[in-house]
Amino acid sequence: MAIRDILIIPEKKLRLKSELVKTIDKPLRALVDDMFATMYEAPGIGLAAIQIGEPLRLITMDVAGKEEPKDPRVFINPEIVWSSDDTSTYEEGCLSIPEYYEEVVRPASIKVKFLDIDGKEQELTAEGLLSTCLQHEIDHLNGVLFIDHISKLKRDMVMKKFKKAAKKSGGDLANDKEPSHHIG
What we know:
Blueprint: H1 26-41, E1 46-48, E2 58-61, E3 73-83, E4 87-94, E5 97-107, E6 109-115, E7 121-127, H2 128-141, H3 152-168
Antiparallel strand pairs: 1-2, 2-3, 3-6, 4-5, 6-7
């Protein structure tokens, strides 16, 4: 298990559309272990493989509260097959956009089809934080960032800030250690 570097905007790889996972083998399980180690260390509640430079349709997630036991979940090739007309607003943050938070409106509940770590087909109806986190992470798999759901003016300001920081490349951009803020 290794902690991997998390890609930070404006890294172009974050805009890649991830490829389907074709086989669940030992290297994939090792990647899942690395993703959990990286996600927990960050700390965050979700991580898409592309965020550590692996363009695979793979997500790790744990939305358990601080006082609850860990609840690690793996979603392989997840696909939203239904979403509600009702919406919810959640203040999102992202491990790839450290220290920036913005309210995002998304469907309140969704149904997701995916494979679990054993390759079994699963279907899950999610609402609340789990729904928001799944939508956020599935967006990553499609090259979409949560800032794509906010106004162009705010998005442009964020991108400008991170491009400037990337040029300086001197500071630690990922120093916010509040996991409830970092969806992934």
